[in-house]
Amino acid sequence: MQTLDIARLRADTPACEKLIYFNNAGSSLMPQPVYQTVLDHLALEQAIGGYAAEGQAEPLLEDFYDAFAALLNCDRSEIAYVENATRAWDMAFYSLPLKEGDRILTVEAEYVSNFLAYLHQARRRGLEIDIAPCDASGQVDLDALERLIGPKTRLIAVTHIPTQGGLVNPAEEIGNIARRHGITYLLDACQSVGQMPLDVRTIGCDLLSGTGRKFLRGPRGTGFLYVSKDILQQLDPPFIDLHAATWTDARSFTMRPDARRFENWESYVAGRVGLRTAVRYALEIGLEPIRARVTMLADRLRASLAELPGVTVRDLGRVRSGIVTFTKNGEAPPEIQARLRAANVSVSVSSRTSAQLDFGRRGLSQVVRASVHYFNTEREIELLCRTLQQA
Ligand SMILES: Cc1ncc(COP(=O)(O)O)c(C=O)c1O
Questions:
Q1: Whose CA is nearest to atom 16 of ligand 1?
Q2: Class for domain 34-284, per CATH?
Q3: Residue 344: phi, psi to the nearest 5?
Q4: Does ligand 1 come within 6 angstroms of the Cβ of 85?
Q5: 6-30+286-389 fold
Q6: Is 300 exposed, middle or buried (0-12, 13-18, 19+ CB in 10 A)?
Q7: Mean pLDDT by 10 residues, the chain (391 residues)
Q8: What residue spans in the chain does CATH classification 3.40.640.10 cover?
Q9: What is the pTM of this model?
Q10: Atom number in ligand 1 closest to CA 211
């Protein structure tokens, strides 16, 4: 394992001095260069106006697409900036040519807003939803998923890492199944991007959505969508504007030929350049070393939690991520969160309304979520566990 310069990475993250931060799956801490990029752009907007500032930021704005192409192993024309992961995912989903009776195949750990979109479209357009169960490990059962494919299955849509647990779904194996059956594959990579390498060609997904503020450590209000060139022409965005299309004659228009047909003309330019810096920062550290350290820390945290009396680690799956979830006898997750917060330890709580299928099956109502990133340390893990024990 390549060793990371943790002291330097922590120096880039000034909050580490005061805060023990385990909410990277919620919204991570921006490293100094990302924060500075956003501030510099806002200062430029204040000094010369938003349009002129955007003009000056052109090289960085263009590099946004190259940076994501390097991050995901795709072409720059396959990337769109979207303001968050939900809207990026929505732009993909609502663009698909689905009609009454078509079936969507998804998983029990699917992200709440994605599942709400299925329910919405099931009610409005008569789409049908199939849910692949988990195997004994808790990841999606690949055989069961494949058996659920029928002649009307048009979409396989999967959350790579659910928001409410450490599980990593087998994205690549699902991609092989989708390819074998010629079905469109949409991957929600919101929690995986930035904490592990992602290669859209190896995964075999047609569409992939993500956010800026989580493991990528970008600013809030930023996200992106990857759209494979092979599928782009079949996708009709749910709404377009003068950036997505050109009004060519009184009654005609042409759509942009690239993934930017999913963008808006107006956007948060400081956020876009900030997210570009965040991607370059992650690439410079290296996604493989990031994964190795996040896995090491998360495993350490799970092992330490498991030793505490009354504490149960709730993570499922064969492969696990930087998201660690647990419960403790006699103390509700929000109480634990508040007690940890008083000790400057930041964690979050996941609730059943975000995971009806997953928590329903497991009989859980809430869990504490402690999500590690590479800048966390073993000492911080000890402090979290010690504070937890002091109830
Ligand atoms: C798996 C997953 N998908 C999508 C989202 C939504 O991301 P955003 O808030 O950027 O829309 C989240 C946010 O927690 C998530 O965990």
A1: 163
A2: alpha beta
A3: 65, 25
A4: yes
A5: Aspartate Aminotransferase, domain 1 (3.90.1150)
A6: middle
A7: 87 96 98 98 98 98 98 98 98 97 97 98 97 96 98 98 96 98 98 98 98 98 98 96 98 97 97 98 98 98 98 97 98 98 97 95 97 98 96 70
A8: 34-284
A9: 0.98
A10: 10
